[in-house]
Structures are given as C-alpha cells and as structure tokens.
Design a protein that fits this description.
- The complex is a heterotrimer of chains A (418), B (992) and C (85).
- With 418 residues, chain A is α/β, with parallel strands linked by helices.
- Chain A folds into two domains: 201 residues, FAD/NAD(P)-binding domain; 154 residues, D-Amino Acid Oxidase, subunit A, domain 2 (D-Amino Acid Oxidase, Chain A, domain 2).
- In chain A, 28% of the residues lie in helices and 24% in strands.
- In chain A, helix 2 packs parallel to helix 7.
- Chain A is globular and about 65 Å long.
- The N and C termini of chain A lie far apart (44 Å).
- Chain B folds into six domains: 112 residues, 2Fe-2S iron-sulphur cluster binding domain, sarcosine oxidase, alpha subunit, N-terminal domain (Ubiquitin-like (UB roll)); 181 residues, FAD/NAD(P)-binding domain (3-Layer(bba) Sandwich), CATH 3.50.50; 122 residues, FAD/NAD(P)-binding domain; 82 residues, Arc Repressor Mutant, subunit A, CATH 1.10.10; 202 residues, Gyrase A, domain 2 (2-Layer Sandwich), CATH 3.30.1360.120; 86 residues, Elongation Factor Tu (Ef-tu), domain 3.
- Chain C has a single domain, classed as Folate-binding superfamily (Folate-binding fold, 2-Layer Sandwich), CATH 3.30.2270.
- In chain C, 11% of the residues lie in helices and 38% in strands.
- Chain C has a four-stranded antiparallel beta sheet with strand order 3-4-5-6, with no helix packed on it.
- In chain C, strand 4 and strand 5 form a beta hairpin.
- Classes of the chains: A alpha/beta (418), B alpha+beta (992), C mainly beta (85).
- Strand 17 of chain A pairs antiparallel with strand 31 of chain B, so a sheet runs across the interface.
C-alpha cells in the first residue's frame, strides 16, 4: 500500500504509480483470531493499531456493525483537551493530549490535529475558583493550563463579546494552548488504514449477536456472519456497551443518552479557538472548512435514538449567541445526534472485566474522542501484557465496588446528571 | 428606466407585479426587479449570468434551480450588522433597497484570482489533505492549515449585534399540511370543510407550488389563481391558518414540527419559529428535479428544466435564448412547449435513452426540434455562460453533434421531497424508479400526498391530496365530507414527469474531472470513483471523504447522483448502495430564530427576592446567584469592594447587621408521620426535636455523599419548617417529593413548597436582640424564652411572622419571616430599629467571610463528592436509626485512598494570603497533591489570612512543611493546620 | 420535546417535567451496602421499552411513572407511582 506524501499525490495526479486500492479492505472474517475487537470506531481501531505495532499482535479482527467510524467517532464535535480535575482522569487525559501532535505522522494519515487552543469561560467566582484549582492541578502534573482575565480572553478570541453582560458575566477563563481539534473521520480512517497495513482484518456490516463463554472465560464471538473463535475480546462500542456486556452476563453502571451537535454554513475564518461556556453548557469551534461546530449537554433522558430536540438546540444556541453575538445571523445547516455511554460517576470504564479474556472500553460519555489514542494505547498494553496499564488503573470497573469513584461533576450515581 | 436593465424580462405573463419596481444592488451595481421576484429571478431578468464562485476551484456559477435545493447561487445579503452570508438567491425574496454581493471571490465574481485552483485540480482531488501536509512536524497547524482555512469558507461572518427580532410561537392543531401545492391544497380544502383545526404552510410567498410555475387550468381558471382562491377559502375557515413564506424544517419526535416563517420587510419580527404539534401531518412537499452528471455540467446557463419553466411562468424571465433540453425521461419533453412560448429557440433534445424507450406521448410533443436519442454530452464550452454543447452517441461512435446554446434544461427525473421523514430516524430506500422513499410506512400520524408520494400528473395529485385527507380524517375518527374534486382543463394537462428510462447511470463519467456531482463543494464523478477505489465505498464514507452532499444545499441535488455513480462503479443495485441520512433542518435556519427571545437579559428566567427594590435603594452591587438576583455587598460612596465587605463584617461582629434570606428553599412538612419522614430523609436525629426548637440537619444522597444542609424546625407537633440551600432548593424539593410519593407512600405526610411565600431577614450581631425586640414587640426575646435554636410564631405589625434563633455568621442571630408581600415593611422596621446601633445590610460576600471564620461548610465544600465524615460532620450521623444514604456512608466503599477531611489553614507567617484554588503539597514534593483550598479570605475579624481546605486524611508530612501552592500565578505559601472554627470556638457569642 | 401523559393533568410537554431515571424500587433503608451498590450501579439500560420516573414540577408536582421506548421515543402509559402496573 502506498505511503502518503506530496510525491504520492503528485504521482497519482499524473496517473503514475500504482492504483491505491482499498485502504482498509473489506475482509471476510476467518474462523479464528487471537484477538477480536468489537466496534470499528476510533477506539477499537486504535487498539488494533497499537496491538499490532507496539506488541506484535496482528492476528486481529475488528468487527463493525455498520461502517467504520459511524458511531461517536464520526458524530462528535472533535474537541481535544485535557482539563480534568481528579487524579486518574487528570493523568490519563494529559497523556492522551500529548499523543495528538504526532498522530498524523505516526499513522501516515493527516488527522489534521490543530492545537489552536481551548478557552473555558468562568461566569461566577465559584466557577473561577474551581478553574484556578483545576489549572493548578494540571500545572503540577506538567499539563499546560493557565487562567486569564476577560481582557486576555478578548484578545485571544476577538469575536467574544465580554463585557458586563447581564445576566451572565465572564469573569475569566482557563486557557489550554495545546488543546484544539482534529478531523474526526480521519482518525478512524487513519487507524484503520494503519491497522490494515499491519495485517489486521477489518470487517464492516457485521453485527455481533452473542459472546460465547466457557468457565467464565471468553471463547468466541457470534456474529451475523458466523462464529469467530477467539480467547480475547475487546468491547469498544460506545452507546451499546451495556448490551454487549450483558451478552457476557455483566451489568454495567452505564446508561445510554443522546447528545446533539450542529454546524453552521461555512464562513471565512472568524473563530480562532475552541470555546466552552458554562452557562449550562455550550461549546463552539470553527472547522478548517469554515463551518461553526456547536454542541451542548446531553439530552437528559436515556435514549438509543441518534437524534434530539430542536428546542434543546435552541437552548444551546442561546448561550452561544449571548457571548458570540455574530452567531445570531449565522445559519444552522445540519444537526445530528450520537448516543453516548454515561456511567454512574461520569468517568470512563476501561480494562479487564470479571470474564476472562473480555476487556471493556466504555463509558466515555461525550469525552471519548480526545481519549482515542491513549485509550487504544493503554488497552493494547493491557491486552498484550496482561498487566493493566497504570494510566487506566483508576478507570477500572471495580471502582463501583471499592468506592474509588471519579465523579468529576459531583453529580452522584445519577447517569443523566453527568 | 426600471425595465431597461431587465433585458430578459418577458413582456407578458408571470406573477410579478411590473408596476412595482424594486431597486437593489448586486456587487455594487444598481438594478431593478419587480415585486414578486426572488433575488435569483431579478438577477436573471437583468441578464446576470455569474452569481457566485464554487468553493474549491472557484468556477463561475449561475442559477441552477428555483428553490432551497440551489447549490450555486449563494450570496451575502445586507450590510453592516444586518449582513447575512450564504443565502440562496433562489430563497431571497426581493425587497426595495436589497443589497447583495457575491462571496468567496476576489477581486470580483467575474474575474476571480482563486480560479487558479482549477489548474491544480488534479492535485486537489477528494481527500487530498489526508495524504499530505504531514511534514515537517508541526507544519500543519502553523502553515498548511492556515492556508486552507483562509481558502475555505463561503461568506464572511456577520458582525456585531443582530438588530433582528425573533419570536417563537406554539400551535396545537388537528392537522398540519406541509406544502400548498395541488396535493396540499386539495387535502387542506377537504380538511377545512370537515371543520378541523389546521395549519397549511408553504415555503413560497404564493400558494400553488408547481401551479405557479406552469400554465394549467383548474375549474376554468389559471392554476395559480385557483390556488390563491383556494388558499384564501381555507384561511377563512374557522380554526384554519395558512402560513406562507413558512418552511417546515424539522420533524421531531411526538409530532413536533418546526416551521420557520421568514418575514422580509414585514413588521418588526424578522423570523418566527413555529413549534407546531399536530395530531396528524400531511406531507405534500412535492418533488425536486434531478440534474444529470456530465462533463461541464456546472456552467451558468445549465439549469433544471423545471426551474427554467418556473422562471418563465412565475417570474416572466427568459432564462436563455437558445436552448437544449437534456433528459433521460419523458418529463423533459413537456418543457419544450414552455420554452417555445417564451420565445426561446430550442435547438435539440438530447435524450440519454435509445429511441425505442422514449414514450409516444413525449415524441408527439416534439415539432421542428431534433431529438438526439441515445446521446450523452461529452463536453460543454463557455467561460461565463454556456455557449456550446458537444453531444455524442452513447454507443461510443465518434460522430459528434456540436450545438450552440446558452441554456440547457436538464431533466433527470424526480426525487420526492421526504427529508422531514428522515429526521425521525426513518431509513430511506429507493423504489423501482430509483426515487427515494421511506423504507417503512411513514408511521402513525403522517400521510404523504402528491408528488412527495411519487404521484405524477395534476389530476392525480389533486385526487391524492383528497385521498390523504380522507386517511387523516379516518385516523381522527371524523366523517369525510363530500367535496367535488376540482376539474382539470384536459388540454392543459402535460405529460407526467415520471422517469421511465435509465437515469444518469448510463452516462460514462469515469474519467471526467469536470462532471460535477456536488456543485457547491466541487465534488466530481471522478472524485467519487477514486474514493470508491480507495475503499470509501460505504455511502456515508463517500460523503465524508469527498464532502459530497455536505454543502449548504445538503445534497438535495447531488445525493442521488452520488448513489447513482456508486451503484454504477460497484455494480450494486441502487437499493444496496443505501442512502445518507437526511439531517435536520430541511433548509438552513438562522440561529437567532432558534434562540427567539432568549437573549440578553432574557437569556434565562431570573428571580428577584421580595427585598429586591430595597437592595437597589441601598446601593447594592447585585450579582446573579443561580437564578437569583442577590446583593454581593453594599458599597458606600468611595468605598472599594473589599472595604465594603470588611465594613459589613465588622458591623455584624461589633453591632448588628441584616441580610436577605429569601432565596433559601423552604418547605413545610405536615402530618402525623412528618417526624418519621424526616428521620428517614435526614442523616441526623430529628424526631426527638421538641416543639419550638430547630436543628441543623444534613441530607445525604443514596450513595452516602452530602446532598444538602439546612435547618429543620418543629413549629407544632405535626408542622415542620425545613430549609434547603439556595443552590439545591429545587433538587431537595424533587428529592423529598420523590421519597414521599415513590419510596414511602405509606407515610401520612404532606409537603408544601413555601419558599416564595415568605420574605426573610437574618438579623445578626451583638445587638440583634434589641432589634428583634423592637420589630416583634409581642415576642419574649429573652434568652430564657427564646434560647439558641428556638423558634416561635409571632406577630409583626399585625401579620403572622416566624422567628428562628439560628446563626450562620457566628453572632447572636435571628431569622425573621413574614409573608412575601410584607417584605418591605419588615426591611424598613429592622433598619429603623437598628439605626441607633449603626445597623447595615450585608451581602453574600460578608456572609461568606463570616462562615469561613466559623468553619461552616458551603457550596465549595459540598462538592458532591464528600461524605459527612470528610466534612467534619461525622458526629452528626445517627448510628441506630435507618436513613437514606446510611448503607454507603458507613461502608468501606467510602474509605478509599482519596479520602479527605476538612481542615482550617493559616499562613505560617500569619501575613501572606493563602491563594484561592491553591493545591496543598508537602514541602518540595510538588507533584503529589495532598489536598486543596476550598475557600480563602483575609479575616477582618482576626486580622490574618485564613482558609478552609480539604486535606488527605492519611497525610504524613514527613519532614516537609505543608504548602499551599498556586503554580499558575507562581505563589507558594507555607501554611499550618488550625483548628476550626477560627472564631469564637466555644460558640459563646451565638448562644449569648 | 416529548408529550408526557400525566395521570393528573393529561398530556403535557416534556419541558414541564424533569427526568428521574428508571422506575425501580430502592432497597430498604436497612439493606446492606452491597444491595445498595447493586441498586445504584447496575443499570438495565434497555434498548426498547422501559419504565421511568418523571417529576411534573411545572404542573401538579407529582412524580409519575412513564412507559417509554428508548429508540422510537413512543410513550404508552403514564401512571401514579403507587399503582403497580
């Protein structure tokens, strides 16, 4: 398979060089694999890529119900940041952020990671206190973050209307310079292409219908295209984690919720950075194509429907227009929904399960995209070595028994409040 | 004068008002149009060919359609703060003084430097950016991305505050009919006759849909006149409303349909969002004609055949002089007559089908025009407008027919407009004519009528509308009224537009670069084929990889061509290729419309306490606390914020002050089982509380974490008065009601939310008793009669009042409550009674300082993660009685390694302030956080910095000292643990 | 925005309600930590019909049990909590 470069592009334009051929293949699954990864999103594909490249495990099948990257990988607002507060999340997301700048070269596929910076706005003294504490925690761990005053926010993002704005002022903000966005689809395609180059079989349009267990150990995966024997299974199916875990008799502290996102028509560059506002929740950035990408909080009712309500889009839009008045005349072009796993403490669940050979990568809520490289990296390490990677130890399922919960929002055991 | 520039305006016909000229400018040049024009028709009337440039290659583009499906003619309208980019000229209703500009071009739309991108087109194929720009490290964001960002984007963003006014309206009705074309009108007139409450909407300014762009006669009058008359009759029916210029954009769950009403120049409201909740929906949304994919299919002058007809009949504009009709089905032949009528010279009909597949009726319509059957177009020419067409037989022979033409009417068949159905998650499939249709029945509450249901022909559509109305009436259990169907003048009926032959898949576009599938995003057939080759053959991959269908038209024209080409390249049936999901909204919607009035001060509802005007009169600096307007402090002339807060604290500590308590949650719990209920709901012992006594109380979540604190007072045996913190008032109310209604319905207890019924002031300070005595003369305020944690009901100035002797500040304190409407009198009485002591109101900042001095927990400690033991409140927890949260508050589950406890901190030197948001570390071991500062202040009372902090229980400092560090501001302060409270540890002042 | 059938007020807009999670009985207050953890940290999360609680806060202020489909969003029943279905 061709190595991508400007040269390759030029040669192809001139009709030289070999035809590129399918970059991730359309494999027919074999009977047996060392590892089966369920879910062809960014996380599952990254796990396959790192297993093959870092650990020499390439007898892998990635099983995708629909099309690669068709779940939350292709539905999120592409924000990459690492501004978590609690130890456990803090280190994990810090590591995740550090992997993004090299990802394109690593995969030989331009995922367009753009560290254009992230602004998190504080609207009250209490919020500002919390931001300061968070920035301090990040700094102590060597993760870049600083607190700036409203004037600096205005300099960083001139479109922001920061004044004494009743009812909600902006008192300052947390700035993370190395955070930004990436092209979400490209992450799935880049990992898929790289995994495929290393011999990983990628099977699309193949639904898992059952997990086969013997003596509390996984022995196979039943699919719509037949039985696949394997003694190692990674479940990486955001939104459907409960259903897959239930196939192995595991109850998860997870419920599924829809989250909406929406984009405007393309505009010439007007927003430099990713901005998050905390009047309720609303976040915004501008893609390289010029569209303004916007999102808000989850639809607060358990749902497997990949859609939401126009009224909630309006609520999110009202917050955005409050601080970015120009958006009032910008037009919404497309809205969509994804379904996210939300755990009973709001943090992810990654690692082994009580069932031997069954690993779980779930519960990312709407934080999954930025975690993609690190989740794949840590899970590959865990699967290949049998040792849980230190960065995901705090994210284990057992914390719901031990009580070492990671409740960033302090919202309690109510999934819909996270 | 006004007509002079309108060189393409026909002398007769059309629905525009030639007596009402409207002046407008386009790219700075002045033009005139007529009332009834869209910007597109006015530009066309003035002979403007190039309206816009395409996104990637900056190719000149004209007007292709007459509706929201327009991919090309996208412009910026308005100036200054009213400037709106990316409007489709076909959707912009012309008004006097309209200012429009081309976008994404420089220096002008006719001479655009950006067009050099076309030279690099071979390099810029689909997905090129995924394959390059990766080296050297960091070059993407610093160099390449910047270039791409500046090249991308269509119009420039609007600036400043939007002067527009937007509003929302809600409507409930029996039936919503979307589309006032023949089928929609036929359905609506029947439904109106049946007496239903109905809403009929149409995106255009005139009712009639296709009737306004044709010459058909109904009941002896012109179709457009019939439509106007019928719509008027419907609007006049009781309970019916007709909304024009109103587009249905979003079909949500439970039949919530969003309509956007655009009101150019009509009153103060610019746009209106209708949230309509009908019991039944009739989708009479018509069909969109499909283009055909061939090399050079994007030149100005190439347009949909139906659009050409509409420009002639609706706007009286001749879209060209010498025309070619290009079709793959019989409907293209119907266009011929309209073109001839407008004086357009039709040079040829180029049909992709072999002669034997062309319908007889279609051929009968052809007079004096060459039909090139079995031909495809291999190229077109013309720099700013179509000039020449080269067509060749599809069999591959080289015999070329070169035709001079400036207009090509493309008729590629019809796609029903069913986007709204896709919004509810319904998958789409393709029928035998390759037209998109819902994969399943549209489901309860939706009927599809007319062209949207694949019905063709005017008479058939009218009948189908009536049929759909019948279905709806049946579903609603109503009688179907007898109403004669309108009669069509047979001579005016034109052959249907049903595609009968192969569609564009017969075209060989394999190697053609300039055969565009998505015209706005410059996606070509070649792009699609390469993407399929590379493995992006899944229809959603193809869309994302090539950006086909991602433009502002959302692929209304291009999606079908995309599927067509994939079907051809992969050899799959149309059906197997699938369909990308139709996403809402149907056509772009201004964010301002979605926001409505929720902007500025009305961003969300806010609340004022009964003392609001007293706060303002006292010069309070107000801020929003949750949804409440609340005083931060009351700075006096020349006083800084800090000075005001300090003065207020001193006033309370040394004399007496008062503070508004009305924002607290406040509930009455009544009934014989109220004591049992509270005992279960709170973590500390309450049922032993005597009448006239109150107690600080703690409520836990099920998982043992503190949910809220408050006071519980027993007014009488069966009447308890309970408070909740301002921030959690709503949560606590829901929580208590849930416990009562869902978990313990067997208890005889009632809850009443009385928060808004009371106005409350806390009077605090050494002279508080004197003030209270003056305010409530009937009350025995002696410490014996009203001890600490006592409560009484009394009278204030003739009205009922409740007095609680509790203290948050740490001074002698009383909370006095009267009915909300008596608040002002209470305020004035307290202020008057305290004048001689120097009484002053204090705000939330002083309150916060004093609670830190007293070591009381507040929001920053109740962070949703802490248990009572961690907050130093463990001794409150009852051991014997069960209560909510007990199982987990005592379980080892909470004894994890992060377990913390609340401590007091002072800076070691007693001088340096402890930084807010600081992290606690031991000596130089800065990477290990041992805890954090939750609240920090320089205490005016103690004259030194103090702080509250959460510190890990197992902390052993070793030989290092404890430090509060704030690396982001470079602060590092040595601190010591101090016992809590900082102030009046024995509590003597409170109990005085 | 859904229409929720309140047994006391009739069909009302979702905006009048707040969501309260699945309708499942809590363990008794005497139950041990394991039982409470099971109740709080294992979720049914069905892809289909489920019973859940909604609080009609901007209406009758009653908690109601609603039967809703998590894919189609259809709602077939709204009843007071104390009446087992």
């Amino acid at each position: 398979m061709a190595h991508y470069s400007f040269l390759h592009l030029t040669a192809a334009a001139l009709g030289l060089g070999p035809r590129s051929g399918p970059v991730f293949g359309g494999a027919v699954p074999r009977r047996r694999y060392d590892v089966a990864i369920i879910g062809g999103g960014g996380h599952g594909l990254a796990t396959a890529h790192y297993l093959a490249r870092e650990h020499g495990v390439s007898d892998i099948v990635v099983i995708e119900k629909g099309w690669l990257g068709g779940g939350n990988t292709g539905r999120n607002t592409t924000i990459v940041r690492a501004d978590y507060l609690l130890p456990g999340n803090l280190e994990f997301f810090g590591h995740a952020l550090s992997m993004w700048p090299d990802l394109s070269r690593d995969l030989n596929f331009n995922v367009m990671f753009s560290p254009r910076g992230y602004l998190d706005l504080a609207h009250s003294d209490a919020q500002l206190d919390l931001f300061i504490r968070r920035a301090n925690m990040l700094s102590l761990k060597g993760i870049q973050a600083r607190i700036v005053d409203p004037q600096t926010l205005r300099d960083l993002e001139p479109a922001l209307d920061i004044g004494p704005k009743p009812p909600v002022p902006v008192l300052g903000g947390l700035v993370q310079a190395g955070a930004g966005t990436a092209r979400h689809d490209a992450v799935a395609w880049g990992y898929a292409r790289s995994a495929h180059r290393q011999g990983v079989d990628i099977v699309q349009n193949c639904e898992v219908t059952g997990l086969k267990l013997e003596h509390e150990h996984i022995v196979g995966v039943e699919t719509s295209r037949g039985m696949i024997e394997t003694d190692t299974v990674v479940v990486s199916v955001a939104g459907h984690s409960s259903r897959l875990a239930a196939m192995a008799g595991i109850d998860l502290p997870i419920e599924t919720y829809a989250v909406q996102a929406f984009v405007s028509e393309p505009l010439k560059p007007v927003l430099n950075r990713v901005t998050n506002m905390n009047i309720g929740l609303a976040y915004v950035s501008q893609t390289d194509k010029g569209e303004i990408v916007m999102g808000g909080s989850l639809e607060p009712l358990a749902s497997y429907a990949q859609r939401g309500s126009v009224v909630r889009i309006g609520e999110t839009a009202s917050r955005l227009v409050h601080l970015l008045p120009f958006l009032s005349r910008v037009r919404l072009m497309r809205a969509w929904g994804g379904i996210a796993d939300v755990t009973a403490d709001g943090s992810a669940i990654v690692g082994p399960t009580p069932v031997g050979g069954l690993y779980l990568n779930a519960g990312w809520g709407y934080s999954g995209f930025k975690a993609t490289p690190a989740a794949g990296w840590c899970l590959a390490h865990t699967v290949a070595t049998g040792e849980v990677h230190p960065l995901i130890r705090p994210l284990g399922l057992e914390r719901f028994t031990t009580g070492a919960l990671l409740d960033e929002g302090g919202a309690g055991p109510y999934t819909w409040l996270h | 004068m006004t007509a002079k520039s309108q060189t393409r305006r026909l002398a007769q016909g059309g629905l525009v008002d030639r007596t009402r000229p409207l002046a407008f400018t386009f790219n700075g040049r002045a033009f005139y149009g007529c009332k009834g024009d869209t910007l597109a028709s006015a530009l066309m009337a003035n002979g403007i060919d190039v309206v816009a440039r395409s996104l990637k290659y900056h190719r000149p583009r004209g007007i292709m359609t007459d509706g929201p499906e327009e991919p090309n003619a996208v412009v910026t309208v308005g100036e200054g703060s009213s400037r709106t980019p990316n409007l489709k000229a076909t959707e912009v209703v012309l008004h006097d003084g309209l200012v429009a500009r081309s976008q994404n071009c420089w220096p002008s739309v006719n001479h655009d430097v950006g067009a050099v991108a076309g030279l690099a087109a071979p390099l810029l194929g689909a997905g090129f950016y995924y394959k390059t720009f990766m080296a050297p490290r960091g070059a993407w964001p610093r160099l390449y991305e910047r270039l791409i960002r500046h090249a991308a984007g269509l119009g420039r963003a609007p600036e400043g505050h939007d002067p527009g006014i937007y509003e929302h309206r809600h409507s409930q009705c029996d039936v919503l009919i979307v589309g006032a074309g023949p089928a929609g009108l036929a359905a609506a007139r029947l439904l109106a006759r049946a007496g239903l409450r109905l809403v009929l909407c149409d995106e255009r300014s005139r009712p009639g849909g296709s009737l306004t762009g044709a010459m058909q006669c109904i009941d002896g009058e012109a179709g457009s006149a019939w439509a106007r008359q019928t719509a008027g009759d419907i609007a006049a029916s009781p309970g019916a409303s007709v909304l024009l210029d109103t587009c249905a954009v979003w079909l949500g769950d439970h039949q919530l349909v969003s309509l956007v009403e655009r009101r150019p120049g009509a009153g103060s409201v610019a746009e209106r969002l209708w949230l309509v909740r009908p019991r039944q929906i009739v989708l009479a949304t018509g069909a969109i004609e499909r283009p055909v994919c061939f090399p050079g299919n994007d030149r100005p002058g190439i347009m949909l055949a139906s659009a050409a007809v509409a420009y002639i009949h609706r706007y009286a504009v001749a879209p060209g002089k010498r025309a070619v009709i290009h079709t793959n089905n019989d409907s293209g032949y119907g266009v011929l007559r309209h073109l001839c009528q407008a004086g357009i010279d039709v040079k040829a009909i180029i049909d992709t089908r072999p002669h034997e597949l062309i319908g007889e009726a279609a051929l009968r319509m052809v007079r004096d025009v060459d039909v090139l059957a079995g031909h495809r177009i291999v190229s077109t020419a013309g720099r700013h407008r179509l000039r020449r067409i080269d067509a060749r037989p599809a069999d591959g022979s080289r015999r070329s027919s070169v035709i001079d033409a400036d207009l090509m009417c493309v008729a590629g068949g019809w796609s029903p407009t069913l986007h709204l159905l896709g919004h509810r998650g319904g998958a789409m499939r393709h029928d035998e004519h390759d037209a998109a249709c819902p994969a399943a029945a549209p489901g309860d509450g939706v009927a599809i009528a007319g062209a949207a249901a694949g019905v063709t022909g005017l008479a058939e559509c009218l009948a189908d509308g009536a049929r759909a109305a019948g279905t709806v009436l049946q579903a609603l259990g109503r009688e179907v009224p007898v109403l004669r169907l309108p009669v069509i003048d047979a001579e005016t009926e034109v052959s249907s537009g049903n595609p009968t032959g192969p569609s564009c898949r017969s075209l060989d576009v394999r190697q053609q670069r300039a055969a565009f599938v998505d015209l706005q995003n410059d996606v070509t057939a070649q792009d699609l084929m390469r993407a399929v080759d590379e493995g992006y053959g899944a229809i959603e991959h193809l869309k994302r990889y090539t950006t086909s269908g991602m433009g502002t038209d959302q692929g209304k024209l291009g999606n079908l061509m995309t599927i067509d080409i994939v079907a051809e390249v992969t050899g799959q049936p149309f059906e197997k290729v699938g369909h990308t999901t139709f996403r809402p909204p149907y056509t772009p919607v201004t964010l301002g419309t979605l926001v409505g009035h929720a902007r500025g001060e009305h961003l969300f509802p806010t609340r004022q306490t009964p003392f609001h005007h007293r706060h303002l009169a006292e010069g309070a600096l107000m801020e929003l606390a949750g949804s409440w307007h609340y005083p931060k402090c009351y700075p006096r002339d020349g006083e800084t914020l800090d000075a005001a807060i300090e003065r207020e604290v001193r006033t309370v500590r040394n004399a007496v002050g008062f503070v508004d308590m009305s924002t607290l949650g406040r509930f009455e719990i009544l009934g014989p089982d109220a004591g049992i209920f509270l005992e279960r709901a709170y973590a500390n012992r309450l049922s032993t509380l005597g009448e006239g006594r109150c107690r600080y109380a703690l409520m836990l979540r099920e998982d043992g974490v503190v949910l809220d604190d408050g006071t519980v007072a027993r007014m009488t045996t069966d009447c308890w008065h309970v408070t909740a913190s301002t921030a959690h008032a709503g949560d606590v109310w829901r929580h208590l009601e849930r416990l009562r209604q869902v978990e313990w319905p067997e208890l005889h207890v009632r809850l009443v939310d009385v928060g808004e019924q009371w106005a409350g002031l806390a009077i605090a300070g050494p002279r508080a008793r004197d003030v209270l005595a003056a305010v409530a003369p009937e009350l025995d305020v002696s410490p014996e009669a009203l001890p600490f944690l006592g409560c009484r009901e009394t009278a204030f100035d003739g009205v009922r009042a409740r007095v609680f002797r509790i203290s948050y500040s740490g001074e002698l304190g009383y909370e006095v409550y009267v009915g909300a409407r008596h608040g002002d009198r209470l305020w004035d009485a307290v202020a008057a009674a305290g004048t001689s002591f120097g009484i002053a109101p204090y705000g939330v900042e002083a309150l916060d300082v004093m609670r830190i001095e007293k070591g009381h927990c507040a929001g920053s400690e109740f962070d949703g993660r802490s248990t009572p033991a961690e907050l130093g409140l463990g001794r409150m927890i009852k051991r014997d009685e069960p209560f909510l949260g007990r199982a987990l508050v005592h379980s080892p589950a909470r004894q994890h390694s992060f377990r913390q406890r609340l401590v007091g901190l002072v800076s070691t030197d007693r001088r340096t302030p402890i930084p807010r948001g600081a992290i606690l570390v031991a000596g130089t071991q800065r990477s290990r956080a041992l805890g954090h500062v939750t609240a920090s202040v320089v205490s005016p009372t103690l004259g030194q910095p103090i702080a509250l902090a959460m510190l890990q229980e197992s902390t052993s400092l070793g030989d290092g000292e404890l430090r509060a560090v704030s690396p982001i501001v470079g602060l590092d302060v040595a601190v010591e643990i101090a016992s809590l409270p900082f102030y009046d540890a024995e509590g003597g002042r409170t109990r005085a | 925005m859904l229409i929720i059938p309140c047994p006391w007020c009739g069909e009302r807009d979702e905006s009048e309600f707040s969501y309260g999670g699945p309708a499942r009985p809590l363990p008794s207050l005497d139950a041990d930590a394991a039982a409470w953890r099971r109740a709080l940290y294992s979720c049914d999360n069905p892809m289909g019909w489920r019973e859940e609680l909604w609080f009609h806060g901007f209406g009758c202020r009653q908690w109601v049990v609603v039967r809703r489909h998590t894919v189609s969003q259809k709602i077939v029943d709204g009843r007071p909590p104390e009446n087992p279905s």
